[in-house]
Amino acid sequence: MKKRETEVKMILGGKACKMTCKILAIFAKIAEVCFIIAAIALGIAGIMVGFAQKDIDVNQMMSEAVSELGDSAMVVMNDATISSFLEKSHNEQMTFILLGIALATLIFVFLSIYARHVYRLFKNLTHGKTPFTLENVDILQKIAVWLFISIVTMDLASLILSTMLGGDGTIGISVSLSSYALGFMILVLAVIFRHGYELESKKK
Predict the structure, then answer these.
(1) Cα dihedral angle (74, 77, 80, 86), rounded to 10 degrees?
(2) How far, CA to CA in Å, does 201 sit from each of 6, 69, 166?
């Protein structure tokens, strides 16, 4: 039993672990900045498209894309979803495009939030003497909550966009289920961290 406790302490408090957490914290911070920049860029692009939508000919743009890409694009163009999109009116096409840009922007906002919390977690693991702190429990819970919020948002957006294109509103259930499972795993990890905190508090 003591041997296992020693091994756990070496894994959680070893120099290699600290260095790994430090590197991951740096990557998380870089990812956060990149996601924020991407969200801002998409937001600006959406505004520009919104103002210039009367001058945008979606069908012509799609035709030019097909002529440039050649036969490789025909497989995509023959897809029922694309055909349904091209049959829509100009206003409906632009509404769909703007919703798509808004959804992509929202995704990058969610990703930046995840990256921010991951950065805080790994930073705490780098500098803290123990991972079992209430702050880390709070971070894990926030990651899980934001994950659930993003899944519901993406599913609703997928339903709306699919319905707009005349589909049956089918959502990627397998992806959603795996994401929900990840969220529950993070919540379980938060419970483990809280239990570890309580055990260390009792020892003190």
Answers:
(1) -150
(2) 19, 64, 58
Least Cα distance to 25 among 108, 118, 111, 105 occurs for 118
Listed residue (117, 99, 98) closest to 153, CA to CA: 99
- Provide the whole-model pTM: 0.72
In angstroms, rounded to a whole number, what is the distance separating the alpha carbons of residues 50 and 178? 35
Q: How far apart are CA 62 and CA 68, in angstroms?
A: 10
* Nearest to 128, CA basis, from 26, 203, 22: 22
Nearest Cα to Cα of residue 150 among 96, 108, 121, 95: 108
- How do residues 54-77 score in pLDDT, each as one tens digit? 777 666 666 666 566 555 544 444
Contact 140, 193 (CB under 8 A): yes
Do residues 169 and 201 lie in contact, with contact meaning Cβ atoms separated by under 8 Å?
no
- The pair of three-digit structure tokens given for residue 174, joined into one six-digit string: 């397998």
- The domain ranges of the chain are 2-199
